[in-house]
Write a sequence for this structure.
């Protein structure tokens, strides 16, 4: 199911929570929407999932406009939209299988069919034989698995994950993302992954939109955006991810050689990661690079190297060095300049 958003607006009082969002989310992919707290992500999800109506703008599923459906048609359409959340939203009074059965009961499916489907779903999410477990006895990862099974119960064609891994430790996050990727393929779902974690985008998404103050500031394939971020917000997310600002918690923390921070961020992508570009430029131009920090990470199938450096010499020679780097396909960002 392809999702198209055309100039969506949603205000609360005079606060523009979603401020003119247009996006095309292709079918059969995992599409990330990343933004800081308050960027408007959850509001946007409520608009796309038909839980709330936009003040203006349009939502299409394939070629069908869905934001202005009659109430009855909207309820019908919403049945095939699955959602999972950060805090799981399970019924603590029901056990695992009763949680999973819930949406099917609402839809009037008969008991025997529900039983068969629940067993299928438990197996799909790796909880075979755990159906009778009270919710309170499950770990966070297992609770999210129950929530995923419940979201898939009525065969949705779209699955929204709003900060679905934000309450989980890195290892559990990894296993839930693997499960979501597997399910996406199996069921040919369109998955919309809302997050404030660049790790989630890197590990699970094909494409991503960066949301800031209710607007899309950047959007495209994850590998392209990692190699060549254009907005300040995206650069901040990436800096956090690779640990340049010293605050990252991810596995690919950069190695920091020097306490000083460098002026230039160099990004090497794919082929350029294993070529002696710096030493060649040093030899040709006589400049020196002081490497402050560096690291390589895998984004999908592509390796992206990041290096924080200072360049010695006067402005003219620095400029020459930067031009030479750019010519070799290295992306160069100078601190304080976009
Ligand atoms: N129902 C609401 N009433 C008033 N303000 C809201 C409501 N929902 C969201 N907001 C405001 O809209 C902005 C975006 O919120 P939200 O979409 O939850 O952002 P995010 O999910 O990216 O953290 C925030 O400033 C928030 O306080
Ligand atoms: Mg939110």
């Amino acid at each position: 199911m392809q999702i198209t958003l055309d100039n969506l607006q949603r205000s609360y009082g005079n606060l523009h929570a979603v401020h003119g969002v247009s996006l095309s989310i292709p079918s059969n992919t995992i599409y990330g929407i990343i933004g800081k707290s308050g960027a408007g992500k959850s509001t946007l999800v409520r608009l796309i999932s038909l839980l709330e109506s936009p003040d203006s703008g349009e939502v299409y599923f394939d070629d069908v406009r869905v934001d202005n459906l009659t109430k009855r048609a909207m309820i019908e359409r919403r049945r095939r939209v699955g959602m999972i959340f950060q805090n799981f939203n399970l019924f603590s009074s029901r056990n695992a299988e009763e949680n999973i059965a819930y949406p099917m009961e609402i839809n009037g499916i008969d008991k025997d069919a529900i039983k068969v489907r629940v067993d299928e779903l438990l197996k799909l999410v790796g909880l075979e034989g755990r159906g009778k477990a009270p919710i309170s006895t499950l770990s966070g990862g297992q609770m999210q698995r129950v929530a995923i099974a419940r979201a898939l119960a009525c065969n949705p064609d779209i699955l929204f994950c709003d900060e679905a891994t934000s309450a989980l430790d890195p290892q559990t996050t990894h296993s839930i993302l693997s499960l979501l990727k597997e399910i996406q393929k199996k069921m040919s779902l369109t998955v919309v992954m809302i997050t404030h974690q660049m790790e989630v985008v890197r590990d699970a998404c094909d494409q991503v939109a960066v949301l800031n103050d209710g607007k899309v500031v950047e959007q495209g394939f994850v590998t392209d955006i990692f190699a060549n971020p254009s907005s300040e917000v995206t650069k901040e997310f990436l800096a956090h991810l690779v640990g340049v600002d010293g605050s990252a918690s991810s596995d690919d923390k950069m190695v920091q050689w020097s306490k000083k921070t460098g002026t230039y961020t160099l990004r090497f992508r794919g082929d350029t990661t294993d070529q002696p570009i710096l030493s060649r430029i040093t030899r040709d131009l006589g400049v020196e690079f002081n490497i402050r920090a560096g690291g390589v990470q895998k984004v999908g199938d592509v390796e992206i190297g990041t290096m924080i450096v200072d360049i010695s010499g006067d402005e003219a020679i620095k400029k020459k060095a930067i031009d030479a780097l750019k010519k070799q396909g290295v992306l160069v960002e100078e601190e304080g300049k976009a």
Observations:
- The chain is about 35% helix and 30% strand.
- Residues 41-42 surround magnesium ion (ligand 2) (CB under 6 Å).
- The radius of gyration is 23 Å.
